[in-house]
Amino acid sequence: MSSGPAGHVARSTDRPHAETNGGKPVRMSSRVFLRTSDGVAIDARYEPGAALNDTSGTLSAHPVFVVAHGFTGAVDRPHVRRIADAFARCGGVVTFSFRGHGMSGGHSTVGDREVLDLAAAVAWARSRGHARVVTVGFSMGGSVVLRHAALHPGQTDAVVSVSSPARWYYRGTAPMRRLHWLVTRPEGRVVGRYGFRTRIHHRDWNPVPLSPVEAVPRIAPTPLLIVHGDADGYFPVDHPRMLAAAAGDQGELWLEPGMGHAEHAAGDELLARIGEWSVRRAG
């Protein structure tokens, strides 16, 4: 695989649709390996979604949703495909596996250099012909979409962060204590590799990356939606409230009654509302 700029397609299984829509060619789903700016190959998938039924024959009328999964997720996991299917009702969808996950290369840095993976996916999503890009992240991916929007202004038209932490090194719940063992201990990383099919980097963060709550004020004027369940077993409700306070008038908080954590807890009705909000706010 050759090196190149972020979003460069290192290997492609693009398959154009054999038919046309309104006299213009419509592209079917694509599966590619993208190259990040630091040289990691990222497995990514594109679905045109609602654009297939658009009689105008153009993709630019529809947003494209770039979905950033949680820790130990991957592009082919059923819960990620369910999320993609829900957003496909509103526009195109790009899903991908973060570094160290699935068929992507490299090792997970648990939210640090994953910003580069998202940047490559966003660049590729926009190259599909969509004029508007919405990033939607869950848990670890929720923190990544916040930091990406802060560090790469202008790349996205709306940001949705679901079940994100507000601050690093949180160990206040049993699931987070287990996750820290998985990430920081050699035996934990073995469990991660063989039990969760996630390759975790052995080095500590150096320097410590910008935290989600520090990133949020830098996102404006891009529309921001923060979604969190009041029954989240990983991050209690002080996390979304900290994020919302940092966002001020530029952010919107949905605190969902009875909702647990991340993709598995996001029901179809919530996903539909997120899709509608994104179409409305992305301009």
Automatic annotation (TrEMBL):
Keyword Hydrolase in record: yes
Superkingdom: Bacteria
Sequence ranges assigned to domain AB hydrolase-1 in this UniProt record: 63-164
Stretches the record annotates as Disordered: 1-29
Annotated InterPro entries: AB_hydrolase_1, AB_hydrolase_fold, FrsA_esterase
Keywords linked to the UniProt accession: Hydrolase
Pfam assignment, any one: Abhydrolase_1
GO MF annotations in UniProt: hydrolase activity
UniProt record similarity statement: Belongs to the AB hydrolase superfamily. FUS2 hydrolase family.
Protein name per Swiss-Prot or TrEMBL: Alpha/beta hydrolase
Natural source organism: Streptomyces tibetensis
Highest classification ranks of the organism: Bacteria, Bacillati, Actinomycetota, Actinomycetes, Kitasatosporales
